[in-house]
User: Fold this.
Amino acid sequence: MPVNSLRRCSRTACGRAAVTTLTYVYADQTAVLGPLATFAEPHAYDLCDVHSERLSAPRGWEVVRLAHDDPQGPSGDDLLALADAVREAAQPRPTPQAAADEPGREVARKGHLRMLSYDE
Assistant:
């Protein structure tokens, strides 16, 4: 899958071609620098080779640099890992006990929505 070579570095006043994509995982205090994403994402930053080498993270954060030497695209292992992650995310999660002051029993949950059952 070809990557758009017209994308430029996100750093101010830098006109070099982007070669990597930087994303942040705030919950883990991690900056992930990987291969240039197939599509420009609003919450990711495309960086040129110079800025990706100079990248530093805030104190206490970890920088994870993913190898980007595969120009052919994702491998079979990458696709299987992605499929497993999607399957895991789609699995119903165990629901916590309904609060005592709620007039029903939680029987299902999807995201922030809950389905309650009222036994009479």
Notes: The beta strands are 20-25, 30-35, 45-47, 62-65, 105-110, 113-117. Helices lie at 49-54, 76-90. The two ends are 57 Å apart (CA to CA).
